[in-house]
Amino acid sequence: MRLYFIIAFILLYAFSCYAGGETLIPDTVSHGIYLAPSMMSSQLGRNQAVGLFPGLQIGWILNERFTIGLKTNQLWSNIEASWIAMDVQAFMNFSYSGIFFSYTPYPRRLVHIEIYTLGGCGLAGYRTQKFGDFDNVQDGFMILEPGIVLEMNLTHFLRTGLGLSYSIVRGIQMEKLSERHFNGMNLLLLFKVGLF
Domains in the chain, ordered, with CATH? Predict the structure, then answer.
């Protein structure tokens, strides 16, 4: 009986040594890194005005397909929020940062897609101006942002992408400003520079 176990162990060991093919986690892991300035466009507020969000992201690439990174965006446009304060000028504030995870199925193809999800937190609110004085009213929130990017490899170290994402904001508890003023679709343009 012991002989059967020895033979079975030897056969299993031999097959495991011989077995090849693709695996989710290979024996060797390649690394890369990139920095990507970006510009995002989104509709905000009760009037759904278009706002521009310059941003920056840094990513650590594993085996060319998986990326873990940090991303930040801040509202750059002056979006009026006249419904908040009638006697003064009011403008919306919105900024967030977070960690994202992405998967790129075919990164070596000239044109390919990247699927990502970001989870993070930020500050939203408004600022008012009266007689030259500014006053900021803000509240913290959590954000989940799934998205997809169509990328093109321009060179071995430069990529450009155009993407769509959806912002899901939770946690804003203000009298005249709510989560529905910030939830919605985003259009994204980015340039990645790095070692892919």
Answer: 30-195 (2.40.160.20)
